[in-house]
Amino acid sequence: MITVGVDLVEVARVQRAVERWGERFLHRVFTPAEIAYCAGRPASLAARFAAKEAVSKALGTGWAPQAPHAAGWISWTEIEVVRHESGEPGLRLTGKALARAERLGIQGWRVSLSHTEAYAVAMVVGWLRGA
C-alpha cells in the first residue's frame, strides 16, 4: 500500500510572496536549511513549496491557515526537503507531520521535484507498513 501526493506551483507566485513578505514568508514556510540551499533561486523554493503541498495531500491533512493552532494542523516547516549524499531529494518530517505519518503507518518517502522557469512540480510517494 502506498499514499501519493502531487502539486504544481507557479514560480512567479512564490517569487511574489518572497518580494512582498520577505523573511517573514521565508521563515514561515521554509526551514533555515531550505532557505540557505535555495538562496536566490525562486524555482527551487517553488519546488519545495510544491513538495510540502504534496506531502500534506499524501497525509490527508491539507492546510488550515485560518486555524494554525488547531489540533492536527501541520506547520509548513514540519515538512523539510533535504538532499541525500547522492544528490537526490528526500523528506524529513517533524512535529505533527511526523506524528500523522506514524499514525498512518508510513515507513518511508520518495520525492521527485522538477521545475522550469514558470512552474515547479513535486510528487511524493509514502509506503505504508506491510507494503
Task: Explain how this protein is built.
The chain contains 5 helices and 5 strands, in the order E-H-H-H-H-E-E-H-E-E. With 131 residues, the protein is an alpha+beta fold. It has a single domain (2-128), classed as Alpha-Beta Complex (Ribosomal Protein L22, Chain A), CATH 3.90.470.20. The strands form 2 sheets. A 3-stranded antiparallel β-sheet has the order 1-5-4. It has a two-stranded antiparallel ribbon with strand order 2-3. Strand 4 and strand 5 form a beta hairpin. Helix 1 crosses helix 2 and helix 1 packs across helix 4. The protein is globular, with a radius of gyration of 14 Å. The termini are close together. The model has no long low-confidence stretch (mean pLDDT 92).
Question: How does the SSE layout of this entry go?
Answer:
Layout: E1 2-10, H1 11-21, H2 23-29, H3 32-38, H4 42-59, E2 79-83, E3 89-93, H5 95-104, E4 106-115, E5 119-128
Antiparallel strand pairs: 1-5, 2-3, 4-5
